[in-house]
Prior knowledge:
By secondary structure, the protein is mainly α. The chain is built from ten helices and no strands. It has helices spanning 15-32, 34-37, 43-55, 66-89, 96-109, 120-134, 137-145, 149-180, 184-208, 212-232.
Amino acid sequence: MPNLIKSFGMARMTVGSCSDFHVQMNALITKSTPEVLHITEKAPSYQAATKKLSSIVNRRRTLTVTVGLKDWDDVRDRSVGVVSGVSRASKRSNVKAKAEAATLLNALMDSYRNIGEHEYTKETAEIRGLLDECEKEEYKAALATLGLTEEVECLREANAAFEEAYRDKAQELGERAEQSDIKTSEALAEANTIYEDIVLTVNAYAVVQPSDEIAAFIQQANGLITAYSNVAGSSTSGSSTTETPDTGEEPAEPEPGEDEGEQGIPHP
């Protein structure tokens, strides 16, 4: 009787351990090639299910761009504050050109007082409007007179960087929402079920069309199973089978009266 893939208590493993088992088993399948194992149609589904399970082992709880948003928002708040403060203070300047420039800018900035306290997206839109105003010739001249041209450019860069970071945040939120929609029990069941189907197929071919390649794969798979059964705190069980594959590479149903536990089916 040929050596067959053993079964073990997969249900006793944590989600992380079960995920790692499937990752390692996929690696063995890739090494042996699905074609040799007669699981060409099953392997892609198994890889996809394994990838899905891996994605939820540690679900993301925080957003990586949050700190960046705060930093860029602080930069733009400071720039707006400098422009407002200088234009307000320069109204009292004894230099006529500066006083006139300050009066013009102060009238503009009156519409943007305290925007740093506004909600992020509202502030972004308001700063975009302010920057458009600053492109007008009279304001450009006034900013140059008060030495604020570079400060406005800093504001422009900070607002653009903030917008980019906010788009990244939206993307992260979308990815996290997609991840949150995956139920752990369903992801586990999907990966385990496809794995069980692969075991049935490989074991069936090991009986009816044995080859050195299949035997080598089974030996490596059983080594992996033994290692993970120790993690799970369970034992492995050997198996024998009389199943035969049909033209679709699906193993036949067991004969009546045969115990499923003796078919090489792992019971998670």
